[in-house]
Amino acid sequence: MADQENSTVQYPKLGLHIDGEWVGADQRRTQPVLNPATGKPLGELPLADAADLDRALDAADRGFREWRKASADQRAAVLKGAARLIRERADTIARLATMEEGKTLPETRAETMGAAGLFEWMGEETKRIYGRVLMRPTGTRSLVMKEPVGPVAAFAPWNFPIHNPARKIAPAIAAGCSVILKPAEEAPASAMAIVQAVIDAGIPPGVVQLVFGVPDEVSRRLLASPVTRKITFTGSVPVGKHLMKLAAETMMVTTMELGGHAPVIVFDDCDLDRAVELLAISKCRNAGQVCVSPTRFYVQEGIHDRFIDAFQKRLERMNLGDGLLDTTHMGPMANPRRPEAVEAFVRDAVEQGATLRSGGERHGEEGFFFRPTLLTDVPLSARIMNEEPFGPVVATQRFSTLDEVVEQANRLPYGLAGYAFTENGRTANLIADALEVGMVGINSVMMAAPDSPFGGVKESGHGSEDGPEGLSAFLVTKAIHQA
């Protein structure tokens, strides 16, 4: 039965937030925001023009000069206040995210609480921005200080429309920076709700700006300005490389959380039932549109057939539907581009000799739904073994030895996350050490927590979000020598 409360949340009027003011469409360009469960429009989003972006830059410059003077207690009060308000508004924020991005209400509620937890944790961590005193002769001092890097340009994607904005805003203001946030145009109301919580918690005007627009126009304008001192970006590898080239013109500090293609290694001695359950749920989370989603499955020969049979049955029990319905296990994909892209991956794999065990097609008459898909014995030449599908598709291969599977897992230039399932402690240690990734899950699919660094290696990016490392990414080091 449909969730009876879903009609109580109205989709808001959309706007930009610049220099302490919400800005509507007026004479600006707009683009529709679609409900991915129906394909129908929810609202019209105003897009920033050059004058808007210049105003945001000027406000961020002024905001930084004031906010950097704020004490740790003042910064913590805003961050903890935002956390409290996000928790109070959690149901509304979650429903907005489900309406515009598609994932289920349990997922968006968990995401909302995760965002609140990140704000609260950064509120505590702002009191632990330490420097140090170096040993010098009597009467002299040498100090090492940590200072905010400056105004930040932050770019967040649509797949986590609540948590991604939180990841950009919370550490920036904890460090004493101002920020211009450009979230994805597909899911703007979620970001607006997070920004509103920060505003209501007392952030001064000019410290947090929210803009939407044509992505290349916005990025070029913000990154060309001498005001901007750092970029933090979450998104695809090609776009990340493009933004790094723009940032290089001013030697801008960069944090890049880019795409992955996570290997999953299932050993003969794993707990089969637990592995199947965890991996099926994780694979279908947000319809597979997760940068750390388990994707390339390497299953050891002794357990292969049993694992595949059990995994297929588990995927086929997933109910697809509107994320606002309490019977839904997996919602739609976020936009009409995604089902088309996944179809192409599946078609290519089958043409190259893979076996389609389940799924492989769209679902329903409206919206952007795609059935959970299982491909087995997928050849290395298939696109899905080399490119991130970003959808509810699993590609599997068999393996026999540890050395063999390590070579396959590390074969690609991506290195964000990797998973392994084994009950052997030595095997767990060996595979954790061998995987060339920023994050490893052993018998676990949990990859994110406020106190733990989140980020990759190789072409999956550099720098970390979350944890002390995530706050440090918004700080620069100054040495002061005094005689």
In short:
This protein is α/β, with parallel strands linked by helices and 483 residues long. It has helices at 50-67, 72-88, 90-101, 105-125, 163-175, 188-200, 215-224, 237-248, 272-284, 304-316, 337-351, 402-409, 425-434, 467-472; strands spanning 16-18, 21-23, 30-34, 41-46, 132-134, 141-148, 152-155, 179-182, 208-210, 230-234, 253-257, 262-266, 294-300, 355-358, 373-376, 393-399, 414-415, 417-421, 439-442, 457-458, 461-462, 475-482.
Describe the structure.
The chain is of the alpha/beta class and 483 residues long. It has 2 domains: 276 residues, Aldehyde Dehydrogenase, Chain A, domain 1, CATH 3.40.605; 188 residues, Aldehyde Dehydrogenase, Chain A, domain 2 (3-Layer(aba) Sandwich). The chain is 37% helix and 20% strand. A hairpin with a 6-residue loop joins strand 5 and strand 6. Helix 2 runs antiparallel to helix 5. The longest helix is centred in the N-terminal third of the chain and has 21 residues.
